[in-house]
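Example protein
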Amino acid sequence: MRQKTFSTREARAAFVSGKLAELYPETPIPLAHKDAYTLLVAVVLSAQCTDKRVNEVTPALFRLADTPEKMTGVPVAEIQAIIRPCGLSPQKAKAISGLSRIIVEKHGGNVPRSFEELEELPGVGHKTASVVMCQAFGVPAFPVDTHIHRLARRWRLSKARNVVETERDLKEQFPEAEWNRLHLRMIYFGREHCTARGCNGHTCMICSCFNPRGGSC
């Protein structure tokens, strides 16, 4: 198969889905956690930070407090000292403290199970809420970060200029049942094969198939 096979977005989407499923039949969640609350905290910490670094930091934090009730008793300065290696520690520490308090006071100690309620929590935007909804609760969602946005443009699955529009485009092209696994597969592939600096949109095993001068796929 060569470039002309992928002249439509539908054909490219089908190829991407099949190739990623072949490469990543299993889709473990990258952030170490034990429940919805610890996942939520880990996702908040992952903003502008690698999952590897988050996984190095969270054991110490969760030994100190692994429930919202316990976290409300930890001074913000103490949270900040532990999470400093993740970057943006002042903002993230305040967010973790604040969301924990709201979860206790408004939600009975349970992480809310709706996008709207999650996005009301400090430090939780739509992408973070989407990760929690799909990875903790199994609700179909397609979290789009800047790298998934970049991959979608490289693979000509979206011409969107922002992650919100890219999410809309990807949801339109893939069956809802695939969203949760596919976003993780795109993350894995982006890290291993089509990195921000390591692929110019022509060299990895997917990009090269969509390049007019690419090889067989």
Summary: The two ends are 6 Å apart (CA to CA). The chain has two domains: 3-27+142-210, 36-137. Residues 83 and 163 are 27 Å apart (CA to CA). DSSP finds twelve helices and no strands in the chain.
